[in-house]
Amino acid sequence: MIKKVHIINFINFREEDKIMRKIFAAVLTASMVMSLAACGSSSSSPAATTAAAETKAESQAAETEANADAAETTAAAEAPAGGTDVKVGMVCIGNQNMAYDRNFYMAADAATEQLAKEGINVEWIYTYDHAEGDPVAADCEELADSGCIAVFLNSYGMEPAMLTIAEDYPDTVFCALTNETSKSDDLENTVNAFPSIYEARYLAGIAAGMKLNQMIEEGDITEDQAVIGYVGAYTYSEVLSGYTSFYLGARSVCPSATMMVEFIGSWGDPAIEAATAQDLIDRGAQLISQHSDATTPSTTAQENGICSVGYNISMTDVAPESALISSRIDWTNYFVYVIRTLVNGGTVDQDYMQHGIADGDVALTELNEAIAAPGTAEAIEAAAAKIKSGELKVFDTDTFTVGGAKLESSMIDMDADFQPDSQDAVSDGFYHESFYKSAPSFSERIDGITLVNEEY
Q1: Are strands 351-352 and 190-193 parallel, antiparallel or unpaired?
Q2: Can you give the pTM of this predicted structure?
């Protein structure tokens, strides 16, 4: 039986987005008026704060809508008549209610608009809520049968099912995002991609560390109370690399910072993520971050009066008094690259790697200046410039220890069997993350981070 495949009409999507922006503007105005202070204190009078909040909120809302409308008008005006029509599929682990999947939809929309200017008209076809196994294989078959030139699978764990059917569809390229087996198989139409998200996580960590510094300086906490709570999905290298880079960013500006990580055994579960964030707060966390797919770690942090750093999308719409910033992979460049390459008759790279901050493939959401510590934007900008120039290495082995000792060697799992192979990632004074393969490989347990559990 053919499963119904969902097709998004981007014109309607943008019209709905206009409505949502207006609703959000009203909510933002109200929330800013009601919030006299967030994650800190203010010496302004209530009347002055209220008036300022109203003015700022209205101005921001108007600017946001005007910029979005202008972008849509420009895109429509620049789009050439006619062109090449193509179908592209995406198999999604979740749906529009999950922050993780919404990040992909935003990138697909941006890629569609960019390609339209080149005369390539993209119709996206989505399937939802399938994480692995036979449903993923069936989705891939149906998308290929519908004429998709490329099928993007948006989560780790989907690749094994995809590989069971890919050989039967040589005219469709299957892109297993955040996976790592296709890069070395014998099929030309299966590929991997994983931009260097650890760079953006490091920068987001700086925002967290700066906030902890402010709390210490203002007497809200002591240096030894500068504890971060981190909601992690699984004990995979992807997650370990992510939380370690985040922590190193935080500690680069707040040397006394420590971190607790608690795993949930799922990429995304709003209720479990909320409960885990609450448990970390109850254990003493003064700030929350995450490698999980929902927004509830941030909303739980807000409910407890502390700040948070998110992932995938900005959390300021759901937690304006808590959310400082988020790190995200921006898949726009990769979507454009794959689709353009296939339309032009080219071959897609087997492993899309070493694309990070400098390329725009990973990014930060807008800093929530209303609650961020003074100097945060400047600190992030300075570190980003050093990452781009190569002066700053995120996993510089002089900046952390493992078991009290400097890390001198660390073998990489190159074939996704969860066993170290012969490639040593440590040389020239740093761990070469996402250098020998796109998928993160750092799996060391560094000092300063405590794991609450490890069963997942």
Answers
A1: parallel
A2: 0.83
